[in-house]
Amino acid sequence: MTAPPPLLDVAGALLTEAAHLYRDRPHASRVLRGQLARLGEPLRIAVAGRPGTGKSTLVNALVGEQLAPVRLARRDAHFTWYRDAAALRVSGQFRGGPPRDLAVSRSSDGLWLEPSSMPPANLDRVLVEYPTRALRDMVLIDSPALADSGDGERDPVAARLAEEADAVVYLSRHAEPAELSGLRATLDSPVARAAPVHSILVLSRADEIGAGKIDALLSARQLARRSRRENGACAAFQSVVAASGLVAFAGKSLQDEDFAALSLMATVSRADLERYLLSVDTFCGPRFPVELGPDARRALLTQFGLFGIRLAVTLVRTGCDSRIKLSAQLAQRSGLSELREAIGGNFLERREVLKARSALLGLESVLRAEPRRGGERLAAAMERMLAGLHEVRELRLIAALVAGRLSLPTPLRDEAVRLLGAEGTSVPERLGVEDQRLVPEATIEALVKWRREAESVDSPAPRRQAARVVVRTCEGLLTRTAP
């Protein structure tokens, strides 16, 4: 059995053929060359959402630095890209012009462009380059807020996300259909609808659930799991997680003086301190039970929020007796680790299929906007490639199994999820073996088992269909292990 060519090689060959066909069409040629270049770039992951969902805060938490947002004097809406580099550098890309370096200053709430460096009104995007391991395998895109109207099809921000991002982390306060409609424009094409595997939903104000009580983050995680299982509006997302970017970044950026202030507050009894944590006014008011000035309290409030302060003080009282311990606990409880795992498993380890999807979307847009003789052959080749994207079927089946939308007995479900690559995409990880010598036997054993499941007349049709996807996966593993 011969292994198929790598997915990106197939996509690259298709784009190259298209670029040759459209070599005399400047706009189409530029789009296709851009798509070819993207195949070798890190994955582009956009952070998107309605106003006030905490996009920039989550970007900071993922990067581990206070870099977002990049603020302009005119407060123009712009896309900001964050990319790994040897040193901090900020540049602007202008519509109809070359990129230009921009002078910035760092503050406690992001980056500010210096007045002397203020760009003209045709700024298209800002690129922030910064040395961090968090961006080695991806480019993060902090997008302007999506329209609040719920009419995502006409939202230019959503349309641009469809063109420029390989994957989207979508932030929402609630898992309601109206709140989740902002990505509709990113699915407004046959290719996108056939491969809706590019987005993760984050319930981003997790600390606000349950009126900000101390167990709010736990309640938010339970809500995310329930939404994933039962909420049909979440079916388009590969995963649903709950996270508080504010708590996550507060943990990552915790300083000794912050820990000292929180420890001082923890010396006050719970009952006496609680009344000062009911509102911003009472927390920053003239009276306070410890020697902590209004400016220091306002700084803590900006960094943690009331819920974060309440949680941090509770953690100090219950054993987090050092800055390092408290930092780790805040990051863990924030949901950031779960979000990183979702990004890794659904996006980074599936880079090839997401890159191929972007390539097909770019080609589709060219064929639709500028039809010409010879395009029919390209469209047919594109359809064949899309039909053969087994990796898309794997991702959709993983989401259905994990969310409980498709039921299998627990042992079968766990094995299917592992074989489909949810716990790692290498052959040993899929097969659940550590000794490479056991791989051939384990592959054949899995293939025989799942063929039986696929052919069982006693199983309902959805179960047999799911088994056929796993069989195709096992056949692919067999080609990868064949001598």
TrEMBL record:
Pfam families: MMR_HSR1. GO terms for molecular function: GTP binding. Gene3D superfamilies: P-loop containing nucleotide triphosphate hydrolases. Residues 44-69 form the G domain. InterPro entries: GTP-bd, P-loop_NTPase. Coiled coil: none annotated. This is G domain-containing protein. It comes from Amycolatopsis antarctica.
